[in-house]
Amino acid sequence: MKKFLCILVAVMSINAMGAVKIGIVNIGKIIDTVNEGKSVNDTLKKSFDSKQAQLKKEEEKIKKLQEDYKKQSMVLTDAAKAKKENEMRATVQKIQQMQAKFQKEIQKQEAELKKPLLEKLKPIIDAVSKEEKVTMTFEITSSPVVYAETKVDLTEKVIKAYDKKHKK
Predict the structure, then answer these.
(1) Angle value at C-alpha 53, between 51 and 58, nearest 5 degrees
(2) In a 3-state reduction of DSSP, which class is residue 141?
(3) Please, what is the end-to-end C-alpha distance for the chain in angstroms?
(4) How many domains does the chain have?
(5) Across-strand partners of 151?
(6) Which residues, 6+ apart, have CB-to-CB distance to 54 below 8 Å?
(7) Could you tell me the residue range of the domain that residue 127 belongs to?
(8) What is the pLDDT at residue 114?
(9) Which residues contact 6 (CB under 8 A, 6 or more apart)?
(10) Beta bridge partners of residue 139, listed in sequence order
(11) For helices 78-131 and 155-165, angle between their N-to-C axes, nearest 10 degrees
């Protein structure tokens, strides 16, 4: 909230001096579009697919345990049934823990892979913003600016400038 108020005060101060031109960029779209971002996304997808395959194997184990339990439940003793149920419960917990672990790993990997890209992106956004003579530039998906009379979407220009500067 403090950040929003500071931005609001800054915009109002600038507005008092003259016209304010707001720039917006969609960083997600930029990352998905630039060549380096596509490479990052491909790496993340491969990692995700690999982890998903591991989870799928574990889910198959649960299905097999459940099928075996259904087939044998009429002839199993109460103690054997309890043992099978505990085994299924333990397998489900193991999968849930794997899922949480994999999710954290993917998020960490995503942050590590995107960090250099974002560091290269900042000066390009600055340069395009200056070239377009915007007063401020906001990331559209997290921006506190809901409306601005004069706003310019710089996303496509940033994509072109990034790919031009960082060819792969």
Answers:
(1) 100
(2) coil
(3) 40
(4) 1
(5) 22
(6) 98, 102
(7) 2-165
(8) 95
(9) none
(10) 25
(11) 90
Whole-structure pTM value: 0.70
How far apart are the C-alpha atoms of 83 and 51, rounded to whole Å? 29
Which CATH number covers residue 72?
3.30.910.20
133: left (phi over 0), alpha (psi -120 to 50) or beta: left
Q: Are strands 22-25 and 151-153 parallel, antiparallel or unpaired?
A: parallel
Span 97-145, pLDDT tens digits: 999 999 999 999 999 999 999 999 999 999 999 999 999 999 988 867 7
Do you know the residue count of the chain?
168
Burial class (CB in 10 A: 0-12, 13-18, 19+), 23: buried
Element (H, E) at 23: strand 22-25
* DSSP-derived secondary structure for 27-57: HHHHHHHSHHHHHHHHHHHHHHHHHHHHHHH
